[in-house]
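User: Predict the complex with zinc ion.
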Amino acid sequence: MNRSRWLIVGVVAALLGALFVVSTLTARGGDPLTETTATSSTIGRPDVEGGESTSTTSPEPEAPDEEPPTTVPVPDDGFADPSVDDVPDETFSGLGDPRVDVVHYDLQVAADPGVDTITGAATISLASVTEVPLAEFTLDLVALDVATVVVDDEEATFDHTDGELTIRPAEPLPSLEVVEVVVEYAGTPRPRYFEALASEIGWQRDDDGGWFTLSEPHGTSTWAPVSDHPADKATWRISLSTPAGTTGVANGRLVEQIEDGDRTSWVWEQDRPMATYLALVAVGHYDLVRRTAADGTELVFAFPTSLSGDLRAGFDEFEQILAFFTSEFGPYPDDDAGAIVIPTNLALALETQTRPTFSRDWLRPGEVTALAHEIAHEWFGNAVTPEEWTDLWLNEGFATYADLMWIAHSTGTDLTRLVDDDENRMFGSDLAPYSASAASQFDAAVYGNGARALHALRLEVGDDTFRSIVRRWFAERSGQVVTTADFVELAEAESGRDLEAFFQQWLEAGGYHELPG
Ligand SMILES: [Zn+2]
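Assistant: Here is the predicted structure with zinc ion placed in the model:
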């Protein structure tokens, strides 16, 4: 690891310590969230208005307004520079806005299979985290046409160019006070093209004429105005208005299903903080198959109505995997789980929160490719989320390694043998797992070499200490955003060892390294 980088992190943490105290809050879902909370008495609550919307363009029917969660802004990075309108990120730039902290998204979208255009209304609870009153801020939104922007019931002016919506409220935003931003928009979503994966990112058509999203790293801004960077997690409510005979699917729990004439609004709530790239939307012909796991977790699987029983059977071992990871890492971090299968053949899977996404061609009779990998992301990536994309190995290295742990457990195979097996992509790249060059391409280094680094750590510190490190990492960091330096610090504290040279070799040097022992 780069020492000067750690030093900077330490200095920032010390400064933050002088400004803020840590307190424990409780979100609506009852999940305890440890957040850094301002002591300032200026923290406000959003003004929540009931009654009818004055909008003429928002989707019908209107779902009833709901009070956003009683959380306050989390100024992770201290007070931001009011002249910087994107999150500084070495790997993917031009996203998010470090001057604001989004607390909650309430998104209403009307979409029809076979129809290119969508209509949306986004109610976003956010706060300025700048020291001085904030005259303007940005949200990311690609291609769609914005009709109006209202901030705390007052019309705001805005510019919308190059995927960035710059909003100027009638009054500058005071520091750390939550305001309600309502954006009404419509148009034809245009997916971003992600060259490294040679694939489209964001809102796209499935093979049956329906719609789905696949949004890592920056696709959610193709269908809704968001601060599209993982450093800014929020709670979500996604309401999808769809025509009769079709189903709208999103993250979390289906809390309402409102029939209105020939349309239905499917209202899903994710009351645990979620990064934007993990948001899921699908509209089409789906069966919702419900089960309850032994620990009470509610499972909802969204299967294309045409999907055969032997392909659905690949998800039969879902609960066993959930129970295994719970025993290894700590309790599953949500009350809801499941999966969605998209009727398309893109050879894709993504850990969309609580409901990972699989394309149909990743299913074999009785088997789902990467099922354990995607479930493991609920702990590593979704609950414990990288603050910068350069830390992507914290997602993919952990999920790849957890998948191997599941294979070793379920087949009785030696874990070291699996890690050393070339077929498991344990050594697929010369790049360093912790590097912008690897993260920007989702290179095999962040997966295989990241997993190999974790197994090397296990061999270096021993099984018991490794297990304690991983369990503490999840227990102490669930709901937060983290850095590689945070993980190194925890591993050193838990093992009582100086691991600087170890992590420098395994995470930053690149190339092949023999496992310890
Ligand atoms: Zn993954």
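The pocket of zinc ion is lined by residues 351, 373, 377, 396, 399 (CB under 6 Å).
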